[in-house]
Design goal:
elongated
Length: about 50
């Protein structure tokens, strides 16, 4: 069970990083996100 959960968390993290990374700096600014915060936000997405 933990292996499956870990894999799903890793996948969700990578998907979030990829999606935010494709956004322009202006789009990120509109969301109140700095480019340097992407990984932190992706880690927070796992906790939801």
């Amino acid at each position: 069970m933990n292996v499956a959960r870990s894999f799903n968390n890793w996948r969700k993290y990578r998907q979030t990083v990829a999606e935010l990374g494709r956004m322009t700096t202006r789009e990120l600014d509109d969301l109140g996100i700095g480019r340097g915060e992407i990984r932190t936000i992706a880690r927070a997405a796992i906790g939801r």
